[in-house]
Design brief:
Length: 174
C-alpha cells in the first residue's frame, strides 16, 4: 500500500512539474522579448513579442512574412504594441492603448502596419480586419548585416525598427 501511495504521489509530481515547464515561455524556441522606450514627448512605447530565429530558413519562402498574408510580426501570441499616450504613427493618429500588431507585405516592397484592438489572440488566426484601429503604409528595407533573431528596437526620437535577416521595417512614432 505504501508503495502504491508513493508511486501515485511521484507520478503526480512528475505530471505537475512537466505542466509547469510548459508554461515557462522562456523555454520556447521563440522566446518572449520586449522593447520599451519613453519618447521625447513622454509617451511610453512598449512592444511585447516572441523572437523567432531563422535557423537557415528564408523569409517569405519558409517563414513569414509572406507576401499578401497577415503576419503577427513575431511568433506565438500576437505581438502587442502599447502606447501610454495618444501618438501618431507615420503622421496618423493612434489613441493610447494596447493593440495587436500585424504586418502585411506586398510584392512591390511595401508593408502595411496594422494596429488591431484584439491584442489577446494567438498569432493572426483570429485576425479580423473589422477590428483594425489603424493601418499605415511603409517600406520594407534592408540592413547591411543579417540578424538570425527577430528583434524590435525603439529610439527616443520615436524610430521603431523590426529587423530579421536583412529585412528591416521601420516607422516613426511621435
Amino acid at each position: 500500500m505504501k508503495k502504491l501511495i508513493t508511486l501515485t504521489l511521484l507520478g503526480s509530481l512528475l505530471v505537475s512539474s512537466s505542466l509547469f515547464a510548459q508554461d515557462d515561455k522562456s523555454k520556447r524556441p521563440s522566446p518572449p522579448a520586449k522593447a520599451s522606450e519613453t519618447l521625447k514627448s513622454g509617451a511610453v512605447v512598449t512592444i511585447d513579442y516572441s523572437s523567432p530565429a531563422l535557423k537557415g530558413r528564408v523569409i517569405g519562402k519558409d517563414v513569414e512574412p509572406k507576401t499578401g498574408e497577415i503576419w503577427r510580426a513575431g511568433a506565438n501570441e500576437a505581438t502587442t504594441f502599447e502606447v501610454s499616450r495618444n501618438v501618431t504613427v507615420e503622421g496618423k493618429a493612434l489613441p493610447a492603448g494596447k493593440y495587436a500588431f500585424f504586418v502585411l507585405t506586398a510584392a512591390n516592397g511595401e508593408a502595411t502596419l496594422i494596429f488591431n484592438k484584439n491584442f489577446d489572440q494567438w498569432g493572426a488566426y483570429d485576425y479580423k480586419k473589422s477590428e483594425d484601429v489603424l493601418r499605415v503604409a511603409t517600406k520594407v528595407g534592408k540592413t547591411s548585416t543579417s540578424s538570425d533573431r527577430l528583434t524590435y528596437s525603439i529610439k527616443k526620437d520615436g524610430r521603431v525598427s523590426l529587423t530579421w535577416g536583412t529585412m528591416e521595417i521601420a516607422f516613426n512614432v511621435q
